[in-house]
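ok, trying the design again with the full structure, not the truncated one.
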């Protein structure tokens, strides 16, 4: 909560500073002489709606600010690397249901993590709605409510000195429900606008016990190109950067059949033979103790059963690279409808956003 207050305060301070020269994202003011009549009409407009507060002042200065209330439909896709640390595993044998999970860290006798990982990635998509309101011409607040799908691939390459000839790959597919809140401050400096955006979402995957929190912060700098014939119509182009930080601690449960892809089951004989050859001929006593608590139950499941046993896991995970670069564009058909696209172009995270936005004037003031 303290972090939310700090970020919100920063956005308000930045927004008030920007308000000296502009009033809202994608705002325009006297861009062309041909729009002089339109600008004059804005200055003489009597604005009798509740939001945004100070809206009358913005119009009196000739700013063409967005309608204050809107709802946006978004489709978002992302592919990014994942770092995994402090993995803990526990197993429950499907054929002995009295067994309880025994969740233990994967460490050697010296307390050092010994499970080796290759590249781990997450590919996800979501569809969400984002209702929002401009409280001031420079300050917007919004909510996020959505549903999506996540596919996480984890590659285990070895245990201590033992290395698999090919990684032991686990792919977990699950649906995710999302809800959250956000705040955006925006303003202009000369011919460009600048926005600072922060949102906080709680994401509940099917296989996790609790929702995990993600914090997204974005900075964008752009310019709006106004139509010569229709001053209320424009195209905004921008570049920016985005930072994503995930809640690190994760606890979940999954059926062994669902955790290991079909390719692993198809090649289980080779994996089982390779593992027991290492276990019986090369592994030290300490390695065997750790293996019996971690990989041996998986190997036994591959060798003897059909994957109905369950595995519980606890991990600390984080995105491999928090920052990436963005480019985007928005076409405003009129003051009601806008269409937006944005993509991540640099960094480990690749992303794509498509959205459509509908806006209205909202509530009138009581006279």
């Amino acid at each position: 909560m303290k972090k939310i207050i700090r970020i919100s305060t920063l956005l308000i301070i930045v927004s008030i500073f920007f308000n000296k020269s502009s009033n809202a994202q994608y705002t325009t003011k006297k861009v062309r002489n041909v729009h002089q009549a339109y600008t004059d009409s804005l200055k003489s407009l009597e604005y009798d709606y509740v939001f945004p507060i100070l809206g009358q002042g913005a119009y009196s200065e000739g700013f063409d600010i967005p309608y204050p209330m809107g709802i946006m439909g978004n489709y978002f896709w992302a592919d990014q690397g994942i770092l995994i640390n402090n993995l803990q595993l526990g197993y429950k044998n499907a054929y002995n249901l009295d067994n309880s999970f025994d969740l233990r860290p994967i460490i050697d006798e010296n307390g050092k993590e010994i499970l080796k990982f290759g590249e781990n990635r997450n590919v996800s998509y979501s569809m969400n709605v984002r209702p929002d309101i401009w409280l001031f011409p420079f300050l917007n607040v919004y909510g996020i409510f959505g549903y999506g799908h996540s596919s996480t691939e984890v590659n285990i390459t070895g245990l201590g000195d033992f290395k698999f000839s090919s990684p032991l790959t686990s792919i977990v597919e699950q649906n995710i429900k999302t809800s959250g809140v956000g705040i955006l401050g925006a303003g202009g400096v000369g011919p460009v606008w600048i926005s600072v955006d922060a949102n906080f979402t709680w994401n509940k995957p099917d296989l996790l016990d609790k929702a995990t929190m993600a914090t997204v912060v974005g900075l964008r700098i752009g310019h709006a190109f106004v139509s010569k014939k229709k001053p209320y119509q424009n195209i905004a182009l921008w570049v920016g950067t985005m930072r994503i930080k995930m809640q690190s601690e994760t606890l979940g449960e999954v059926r062994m059949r669902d955790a290991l892809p079909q390719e692993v089951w198809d090649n289980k004989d080779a994996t089982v033979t390779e593992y027991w050859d290492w276990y019986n001929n090369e592994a030290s006593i300490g390695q065997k103790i750790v293996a019996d608590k971690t990989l041996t139950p998986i190997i036994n499941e591959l060798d003897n059963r059909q994957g109905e046993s369950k595995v519980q896991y606890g991990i600390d995970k984080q995105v491999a690279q928090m920052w990436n670069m963005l480019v985007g564009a928005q076409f405003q058909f009129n003051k009601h409808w806008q269409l937006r696209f944005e993509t991540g172009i640099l960094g480990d995270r690749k992303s794509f956003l498509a959205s459509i936005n509908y806006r209205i004037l909202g509530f009138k003031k009581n006279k």
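Keeping the full-length input from now on. Helices lie at 2-18, 36-43, 55-60, 256-259, 262-266, 268-281, 285-293, 295-304.
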